[in-house]
Amino acid sequence: MRKANLIAAIIGIGFSSITFIITLGFKKFRNVPVGPEFFPRWLSIGLFICSAALLVQAFKTKPAGDKAAPTLSLRDQGMQRLLVGAVLIVVYAVCWNFLGFILATPLALFALMFLLGLRRYRVMVIFSLSVVVVVFCAFRYLLGIDMPMGVLDGLL
């Protein structure tokens, strides 16, 4: 497990460093306090901190002997859910422009909640629709950012 943690920490530190450097080249806008670099830059800083903590922890722990790190298997139900969830997100991204935010998002949220085991359908529908209304209103009216409307273009 120590070796796996070391490798994961080094990969995380490398990835976060590259991502941070890339954000330094993002275009700066006048009169915009939070630019497009803000969120990815802070995510890369968070990943760096977590990876550094994992690296320190890996060096502090004593070797466990011949105990191997657990392997990933497609037979594992959690791994199957992860893959189905990833496919759902890709399908959501593909449908984003055609269906639009208002139609695609509640379907994706409902499907992901179902995948995670929630079976209270009334709650799932109310939550999915509420999130879409809140996010849509926040982007359109508070931030002034238009969301893709897809087939509903011109109606709202």
Structural class, by secondary structure, is mainly alpha
In angstroms, what separates the terminal alpha carbons? 54 Å
Instruction: Figure out the total of helices.
Output: 5
Strand content: under 5%
Share of residues in helices: 55-70%
Return the string of H and E elements: HHHHH
Radius of gyration based on Cα positions: 21 Å
Number of strands: 0
Form type: flat
Mean pLDDT: 91
Tell me about the biggest sheet?
none
Total discrete domains: 2
Low-confidence stretches: none
What would you note in describing this structure?
The chain has helices spanning 2-23, 38-60, 77-99, 101-115, 121-142. Helix 3 (77-99) packs antiparallel against helix 4. The protein is mainly α and 156 residues long. The protein has 2 domains: 2-60; 77-152, no CATH class. The mean pLDDT is 91. 67% of the residues lie in helices and 0% in strands. The chain is flat. It is built from 5 helices and no strands.
